[in-house]
Input
Amino acid sequence: MKIHSLLLAGLLATAATAALAQTPAADPKAMHEKAVVLDTHFDTPANFALPGWSIMDRHEHEADGTQVDYPRMVEGGVDGGVFVVFTPQRARGPEADVAARDHALVRLTEIHEMVAREHEHFALVTTPQEAAAANAAGKKFVFISMENGAPVAGDLTLMDAFYKLGVRMMGPVHFANNDLADSATDPKGPEFNGLSAKGKQFVARANALGVLLDASHASDAVLDQMLDLSTAPIILSHSGVKAVYDHPRNIPDDLLRKLAAKGGVIQINAFSGYMTDQPDIPERRAALAALSQKYAGQPQTQAVREAYMAERRAIDARYPVPRADLDDLMQHILHAVEVAGIDHVGLSGDFDGGGGIAGLDDVTDYPALTARLVAAGFTQEDLNKFWGGNALRVFGEAQAKSTR
Output
């Protein structure tokens, strides 16, 4: 249920409109281009192994469901991204640990291969300084993160190996509890009431390596404990605020204040299911299940993906569910800025991983969000922080506290 008032947004928009009328030099498009735009959670590497799919080709979201590629990054003024090594949480135990490790190594290799192949347009970076150099050279910079600590849960010394392979952000958990921590969304509820003993070691090793800790998907208790234990600021790479929409993936105000006091950042994510009610429609659920079964095992060629998306759109049209929009996103952003301050808020579309709302379907829509932010009173300095400066700062601060 939404409990946040639009009063703040209305006041800011009214004041900003009057100010902009007196200062016609304010140009949201130019302001967007001046900012270094970094999205902290691209699930795009999941597309790298698809037959015939290239990040250098322009794709259409409506056709194949993808949301990030080089031409669209250029159009959207996106300078870089945190490309995700995502590992689904499956079984637990020694065999599952090995499978998770191997899955992550394959995905990580695919990221390295993409950057090597497209080195004229992309640069793999591990520090804010390297990101600045890549940006100055006209290249899109690529940080690497690990979403879900399952690949290292069986042997935490693997954190060092992934660090050497370029991973600079790690989150302990995803949709389900694992051996490190409780998830915000496991239907079984908490298992450790926060971090496990091994999860606390995970935090300590990340700090020692200078790896930025990511608490998105973790339970509130895990975030609270990570903030107590970590010697460096923490990021929520793609999360929302609970005061605007009450969902387990969103963060309550007390923890938002604690995150900011620690120097951390929340990157507001544009994920409809965490921003507006999603009613359960049995007919829709059955149609989606049948669609998944129909395409299970088929080679994921571009033609197959486009056919799948066409059928998916037909289901959406027949059994529509509410979709969040830019108004919803602005409520999350403005509330987070009000509670935590502009130095502690950024954005991630959660693109290619389920993200996307009306008005923000892919990275080409980011300038439209900047226009909304400027209308709400954001200055160039605010935009510089929001779009990339805050996230780059916490990368640097985590690395500065390394004891390697």
In short: Residues 185 and 316 are 25 Å apart (CA to CA). The longest strand covers residues 140-147.
